């Protein structure tokens, strides 16, 4: 563009305003080129590292390929899929996952919202409180898993030690059939309650003050204000947070791996952990791929839901 | 939403019963709320404090029953063990930390270089099915890592990227690019496109306008985004444990997790390693606290 008037590059403004149509056209052309040049490297990386592997997994899911046996893979049609959908083992894992996701996300939501509500009512020390509450969320699941494993140890764990000192019995946190799943839910809740809290707090502080003032002039009760002002205004944002957490909880692997390794027995084996066992301990790559594709379908449905609410939130 | 609020305010005369409840409130309630918050904060922070405490305890005190909260001997031995091997020289853990720095740093740089221009392009230009493209990009970030790692493992085995830092860098970059694009698009949207239009009226090309005017304004946003990408890569565990095996490549999370593999576990060392591992994350997170909501929702929610 500036090339068209090489003599006046020192005062390019005059040139551009003197000949508006020409730069306009060439700009639109170069814009398209720029858009392609700027977006395609990122898209290529995603194609190579996300889309292509998933397509490969899709292909493998129709075969009996095994990563260790090698040799040519036999095409087995929907055999892997029907085997997985009919498997009792998978049903059990699906139930475990459901209990875990619903339990953890519900607890996090209630606690996180409660904390956010309490913080939002304080006038002083808000920043400090928020920062302190956010610490667990920033830790790696590895650190969280390891540390809770230490604290929940039945013999020398500090949790049982504290329970003992107030006269309560010892709990087999990670080794009991029932308690292990509860422990998993509790640890996940400990780590991710801050997430819900953070987003709920963002929603709560965005509620216009004059609404509360109007309500209090009208002598509306606390509960009434909460129900008709706070909740409706925060709910859309909270829903986003809940869906986000649900997706994350559904695909969670590392915490299970570190904290309980699926045990005792299979009592804390979630779907992602089971996929790992099928793929990397059983080396039934074909079956594991079909399993993974089915999980991805669930994630895609949840993601669609999430994105739809997100869209709605942005449009409001 | 606005409608429901209007209703809420206008239906109020029928609900005057609330006033006694309000009078009951006041100071007593405020004290109750403060107490509740304190208790909750204590519960949330106790594990972190306990971890720090364990990392400076002598082994005898670490396994004491009942647990020792205050009267223990302070030692820095565990921290020494994190960095120095039992004989002499560097420990495997410190090598793992170094690998983590390299992998997290390089993958963040790659994701930033690829993601920022893309975010700018998505923000500024009309494109075919732009919304669909953006949603597709975000949804790749939601794929379960355990599932993605199966074909990635086979693919890497084929091309010789198994157990290599480059392999980890590539997959982390691929997981951070969607985040970078979404997060940065928000920042680019905040910079008025008119700046570039004005620069172009002055004779600059679109690219020059981006480079000279928009990019400098984006720098704080780029820094915040890069910090989040850095934290994600630093904390990542699933790909690290399945795609690497040798000590010279392994990053810190699998190395720390490997500490509990044996029959006896040195929990003091685990605690010290965890503290060393978590400290930079907390510092970085504190630096970007203003953007935390956007960061942890992958740039989807902005306030």
From TrEMBL, chain A:
Major place of residence: membrane
Domain (ABC transmembrane type-1) ranges: 94-306
Alphabetized UniProt keyword annotations: Membrane, Transmembrane, Transmembrane helix, Transport
SUPFAM superfamilies referenced in this protein's UniProt entry, alphabetically: MalF N-terminal region-like, MetI-like
GO BP terms: transmembrane transport
InterPro entries cross-referenced by the UniProt entry: MetI-like, MetI-like_sf, Sugar_ABC_transporter
Polar residues composition bias: residue spans: 1-17
Protein's UniProt keywords contain Protein biosynthesis: no
Pfam families hit by this protein: BPD_transp_1
Segments crossing the lipid bilayer: 34-59, 98-119, 131-151, 192-212, 224-247, 288-307
Bilayer topology annotation: Multi-pass membrane protein
GO cellular component annotations of the record: plasma membrane
Family to which this protein belongs: Belongs to the binding-protein-dependent transport system permease family.
Listed name of the protein: Carbohydrate ABC transporter membrane protein 1 (CUT1 family)
UniProtKB/TrEMBL annotation, chain B:
Domain named ABC transmembrane type-1: residues: 97-288
Family matches, as CDD domains: TM_PBP2
GO annotation, cellular component aspect: plasma membrane
Predominant subcellular localization, coarse grouping: membrane
Domain of life, per lineage: Bacteria
PROSITE patterns hit by this protein: ABC_TM1
Membrane topology: Multi-pass membrane protein
Subcellular location: Cell membrane
Keywords, alphabetical: Cell membrane, Membrane, Transmembrane, Transmembrane helix, Transport
Pfam families linked: BPD_transp_1 (PF00528)
Region (Disordered): 1-24
Membrane-spanning intervals of the chain: 31-52, 96-122, 134-156, 168-188, 209-234, 267-288
Matches recorded under InterPro entries: BP-dep_ABC_trans_perm, MetI-like, MetI-like_sf
Family to which this protein belongs: Belongs to the binding-protein-dependent transport system permease family.
Name listed for the protein in its UniProt record: Carbohydrate ABC transporter membrane protein 2 (CUT1 family)
Originating species: Nonomuraea fuscirosea
């Amino acid at each position: 563009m500036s090339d068209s008037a090489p003599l006046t590059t020192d005062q390019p403004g005059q040139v551009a305003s003197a000949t508006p149509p020409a730069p306009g056209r060439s700009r639109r052309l170069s814009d398209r080129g720029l858009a392609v040049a700027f977006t395609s490297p990122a898209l290529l990386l995603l194609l190579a590292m996300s889309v292509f592997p998933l397509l490969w997994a899709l292909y493998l899911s129709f075969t009996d390929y095994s990563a260790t046996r090698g040799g040519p893979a036999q095409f087995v049609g929907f055999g892997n899929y029907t085997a997985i959908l009919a498997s009792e083992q998978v049903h059990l894992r699906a139930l475990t996952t459901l209990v875990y996701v619903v339990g953890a996300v519900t607890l996090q939501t209630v606690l996180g919202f409660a904390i956010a509500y309490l913080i939002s009512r304080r006038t002083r020390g808000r920043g400090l409180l928020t920062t302190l509450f956010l610490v667990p969320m920033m830790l790696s699941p590895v650190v969280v898993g390891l540390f809770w494993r230490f604290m929940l140890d039945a013999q020398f764990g500090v949790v049982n030690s504290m329970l003992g000192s107030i006269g309560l019995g010892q709990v087999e946190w990670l080794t009991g059939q029932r308690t292990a799943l509860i422990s998993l839910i509790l640890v996940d809740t400990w780590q991710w309650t801050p997430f819900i809290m953070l987003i709920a707090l963002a929603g709560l502080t965005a509620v216009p003050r004059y609404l509360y003032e109007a309500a209090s002039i009208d002598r509306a009760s606390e509960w009434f204000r909460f129900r008709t002002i706070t909740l409706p205004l925060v709910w859309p944002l909270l829903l986003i947070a809940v869906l986000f957490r649900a997706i994350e909880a559904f695909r969670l692997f590392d915490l299970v791996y570190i904290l309980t390794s699926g045990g005792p027995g299979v009592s804390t084996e979630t779907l992602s952990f089971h996929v790992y066992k099928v793929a990397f301990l059983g080396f039934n790559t074909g079956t594991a791929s079909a399993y993974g594709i089915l999980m991805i379908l669930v994630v895609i449905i949840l993601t669609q839901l999430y994105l739809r609410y997100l869209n709605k939130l942005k449009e409001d | 939403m606005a409608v429901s609020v209007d209703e809420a305010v206008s239906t109020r005369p029928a609900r005057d019963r609330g006033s006694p409840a309000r009078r009951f409130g006041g100071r007593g309630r405020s004290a109750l709320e403060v107490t509740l918050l304190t208790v909750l904060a204590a519960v949330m922070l106790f594990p972190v404090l306990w971890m720090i405490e364990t990392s400076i305890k002598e082994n005898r005190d670490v396994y004491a029953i009942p647990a020792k909260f205050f009267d223990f001997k302070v030692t820095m031995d565990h921290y020494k063990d994190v960095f120095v091997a039992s004989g002499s020289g560097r420990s495997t853990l410190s090598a793992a930390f170094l690998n983590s720095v390299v992998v997290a740093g390089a993958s963040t740089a790659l994701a930033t270089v690829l993601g920022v221009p893309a975010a700018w392009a998505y923000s500024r230009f009309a494109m075919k099915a732009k919304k669909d493209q953006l949603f597709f990009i975000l949804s790749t970030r939601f794929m379960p890592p355990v599932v993605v790692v199966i074909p990635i493992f086979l693919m890497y085995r084929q091309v010789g990227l198994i157990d290599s830092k480059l392999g980890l860098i590539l997959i982390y970059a691929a997981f951070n690019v969607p985040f970078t694009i979404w997060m940065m698009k928000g920042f680019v949207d905040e910079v008025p496109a008119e700046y570039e239009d004005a620069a172009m009226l002055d004779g600059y090309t679109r690219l020059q306008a981006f480079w000279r005017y928009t990019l400098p304004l984006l720098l704080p946003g780029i820094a915040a985004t890069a910090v989040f990408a850095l934290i994600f890569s630093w904390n990542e565990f699933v790909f690290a444990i399945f795609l690497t095996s040798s000590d010279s490549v392994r990053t810190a999370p699998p190395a720390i997790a490997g500490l509990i593999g044996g029959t006896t576990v040195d929990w003091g060392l685990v605690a010290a390693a965890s503290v060393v591992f978590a400290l930079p994350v907390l510092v970085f997170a504190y630096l970007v606290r203003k953007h935390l909501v956007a960061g942890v929702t992958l740039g989807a929610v902005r306030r």
